[in-house]
Structure formats: structure tokens, C-alpha cells
Amino acid sequence: MKTYTIYYVEKRNRAELLKKMEVEAKTAAEAKKICKERFYEKTKKNAFRPQTSVKAHMWNKDDTERIAKIEAEIEKDGYSIIGHY
Q: Is the whole-model pTM more than 0.85?
């Protein structure tokens, strides 16, 4: 078993909040599935776009400054607002 950090999107108040969860699993695919299940059990909502990298949620994957800022916000506040819909 390996510990994976899964980044996922929670939609709340017409905003997309990027959050993370630590999950133990055999594979990354299994970790994503566990993340979605745990989030649903906890909130009765869907965890959108679970990924093992924060870069997967970025339009410009080379924007290391913004990626570092988002990772810091998640560590500090528990989430980062990445968009509105």
C-alpha cells in the first residue's frame, strides 16, 4: 500500500474549490475511487476531477508560480478557489 495525495474539486456557492485528501491504496486509480467514495460519505456531494497532481487542474501546466501559490493555499486554508461557474 502506498499513500497518495489526491487533489479534487468541490463545487460550493458557484465556486470550484480545489482540495486535497491523503489516501492509502495499491494504485492511483484505486486512490481516486476511494477519495470520491469518502468525500461522498462525508458530504453527500460529488468530488469532481480527482487527480494525483495539482498540475492536472491547471490550464497552463508550466505556471509553476501559480501552482506553488495554490498548493500553499491548500496547506493553509484547506482549499483554493480555482474558478467560478
A: no
Residue 79 — φ and ψ, nearest 5°? -160, 170
> What residues contact 1, with CB distance under 8 A and at least 6 apart?
24, 25, 26
The DSSP line for 66-81 is HHHHHHHHHHHHS-EE
Within 10 angstroms of residue 9's Cβ, the number of other Cβ atoms is 20
User: pLDDT (tens digit, 0 to 9) for every residue of the chain, 85 residues total?
Assistant: 999 999 999 988 888 888 989 999 999 999 999 999 999 999 999 989 899 988 777 666 667 777 788 888 888 887 777 766 5
Report whether 45 contacts 31 (CB < 8 A): no
Cα atoms found within 13 Å of the Cα of residue 54, Cβ hemisphere only: 23
Place of cell 490550464: 59
